[in-house]
Fold each of these.
Amino acid sequence: MSVPGDDAGLAVTGIGLVTPAGSGTAATWKGVCAGRGTAAPDPELAGLPVGFSCRVPGFDPRTQVPGPRPWQHDRCTQLALAAAHEAVADAGLDPAARNAARVAVVLGSAAGGVGTYEEQLRKLTDGGPRAVSPLTLPAFLPNMAAGQLALALGARGPVLHTATACASGAAAVALAALLLSAGACDVAVAGGADAMVTPLCATAFARMGALSRRHGSPDRASRPFDVDRDGFVLGEGAGVLVLERTADAVARRAPVRARLAGHGMAADAHHPVAPDPEGRGLRLATQEALRSAGATPADVAHVNAHGTSTPLNDRTEAATLGRLFGSAAPSVTSTKGVLGHTMGAAGAIEAALTALTVQHQTVPPTANFHHPDPDAPVVDLVTGRPRRQSVPLALSNSLGFGGHCTVLAFRPAP
């Protein structure tokens, strides 16, 4: 719980993104505004039930990951470190010049180093114990992205990992806000990363019926809210924000991209993987985010929806938005049409994109939307091209298996 207005003074001073639209914030923003899907055939998934994904193009840890031995890290940690490096540089921070005990790191992930786990299990099966790398555990333990980032920054404040499935990155940002509001740190580097485009994860999601089977046109497979949606597209990536109190950011003349005005976290308590048809968890999280921002539903101009492109999620989320906002009808987008579902990174990536939306007063379009679902409530979905509009307050929705719901509220910089 938070006191109304607690987070009105939190500034987003840095953003770092590594996504299927490209490495870097500028490349990702350009890609989501172009509104074209990034899914493509994936050779590593050949022969599996679904053979396409949304991968980060041209990612090279040798040049994009700081530190002397990037090859020791799982891809999840590599993506996180690359995004964090950009975010810290964007904020104009020199970690060495900070009081290390006042710098916090909070990163979320749904699966941590699952790629390393699968690879080393294959080596154990094929080659026996001596084939397993002694670096296996430090590479795949879920907390290691946060731990390695703390090592890279020299951060000695709270260093935490959040694991709330596909809401992990958003929950990390909310937890970082709570740490700042409680006075536990002065700077928080927060976000999420995941690299779950692996044979086991892809097969498991396909066996659940969660993935799109649109093999003939993978770039059009992720189609949030469209009547013909048939599942999400598995993706990878990372998003990291630097958060500070606005007074501190102003004192050091830092750029402020947006303000994190509020946050809310709740649970469906309904089903392990299916969303609550009544949307009770999302509704509670939204109400708490608005309460902590000192706002009402009528103040919300835009919602970056969770919008996975699965039949159940999109219909339930649209219905919940209808109940929450009624005729107020904020504009809605889902950037998963472009980026696919980056799992635990999604909430952090979408938080960053929502901050950019209020900074640029521009809403990116939802890719691959052609026909509305007659069984779902109508939402003001932005499609085709970016929409210029006044966005004094925007929400970013994140939902995860287990019923986790996190909503973040952003306002323009003061």
Note: Confidence is low (pLDDT under 50) at residues 1-7.
Amino acid sequence: MYVVGECRLRALLKDRKLSQAELGRRTGISRSQIGHWINDRKRVGVMGLDKARTIAEVLGLDSPYEIYEWDEIVPDKAASE
């Protein structure tokens, strides 16, 4: 099983030489909301799939799931016995 890890937007924007403000202009999502996803996921949560799809399209990603790192959770064998 996998869980959402860190938001990769900061690195994706840097690679594409885009600012949060420019991404906001291209997507219609406020710069402040983009900043919250980048800096404070634990408080604001993970973006919805509709927003992720919009951002992925602007950034030229193959999938909206590329916006986040994904951490594998390995079941504890002792807990299942």
Note: The mean pLDDT is 90.
Amino acid sequence: MTTDAEISRSTASAAAKGTRWTLAAMVVRQFGRLGFAVVLARLLGPTDFGVAAAATVYISLTAVLLEAGLSSSIVQKPDLRPQDEGATFWALAAIGLAMAGVTVLFSDEIAAFLDVPDLGPVLVALAASPVLKGVSNVVGAKLQRGLRFRAMAVTEISGTLAGGVLGVVAAELGMRYWALVVQQVGTDLIVLVLWFAAAGLPKLVVDRAALRHLRTFALPLVAAQMIGYGSRNIDNVVVSRFLGQTALSYYTVPYRIMLIPVSLLGNVANRVAFPVFAKVQDDRDRVRSVFLRITRVIGLVVLPAMLGVAVLADEFVETVFGAQWLPSAPVVQALAVTGILQSLTTPGGSVFMGLGRADVSFRWAWVPLTFVVPAFFLGLPWGVTGVATAYTIATVALTPFLVRAIGRLAGFGLRTWVRSVLPAFISTMPAAAAAWVVHIVARQHDFPAVATLIAGLAVVLAGYLVFLRVFFPPSFREGLAAVRLLSTGKLMKSA
């Protein structure tokens, strides 16, 4: 007979191995997408890139509706039945088809509202994406529920690389912003085929109990994610509508940079921690331990990385995207703090879902929508930098409330959360200040941007590690241990 302790060890072991695979998949996924965006940005320039930037808002919407939401019920439900798979599959397929139909019908109106005339035909072509996502995500959720992170990772890595190659080839052939369509639809199609090959077709039977579970658990979660999507993307709509297509490009490029740690570290944590929290949802101490460990590790990486990029924003933008993109450098600086805070709090979503509290996620999602969206309009008079700064100010104001909401379920307070990230924050400050000195001196002597960027980042890394080692040795050792455990696949096991 299998004991609870044996189940817990088995779950931790599977999650530990999955951390490496998930991290590898997210690294390839995020930097592959960013690499393609860099290529496209350099080939098209700020004006034409605005079409791709506007289309990315649509792609994000399909991801919110179809990549989590309803499919999360398959991961969270303790006693999954074939009927639960069937209900989720048909619901997602219907949503995907409905989204495709709405997109085709209103593509011209959306393009006119955003003031991006070339967007209409692009949206019609991208309407295939939600259909492909809708029929494949139940299979992905089954893999996640079974902690089959290797299969998920191999699929996503293959899809990202193959889709990216297709997109780059299309861009080189002169297809302009249509290269984004080739890349996105190609990636979704490849993932669909590989996920079906890994997990087989989902069960297609349905009953009332399955539909009732979708209504009580999944629908509030979908609603919360839709609200969150609105909070995160209305800024793009506001910028495009009131500041223009070129301004949207200058805003979107830094926004992608800000999302790197959120998507890479936060989503790695969510993918691995969500099924773990679901399996140990009655063990509050375990939930608290895992969440705080994740928060500390994310803070040790994100704080020096994001603040280093903020200090060296001019050199970073010129080196990566080209001198024509320098007007976006102040936006990089303004969004750096938002990137840090969202990275640190993103794993809270896995606490809400894993503990079956989609209702809390739904209720709390209204808070940022209520306060962040007005901030975008308040920042408009100062252009894209004003919108980005307003976004950061609103995020700073709301983060303590979000942490408290997570802590009420996981069993910790705001002070405990602050203490978990304080060593990384304190150690980053003198390192970032030293990098700022490098930036000032380099500008006075007209050093090349790439040389200044390399030197500045080296100063940030060295100063941060030295300060952390001298003044916070336990945190330094924890960081080294996290790297070692991650390389051996035991990070989640030790939490």
Note: The CA atoms of residues 139 and 334 lie 39 Å apart.
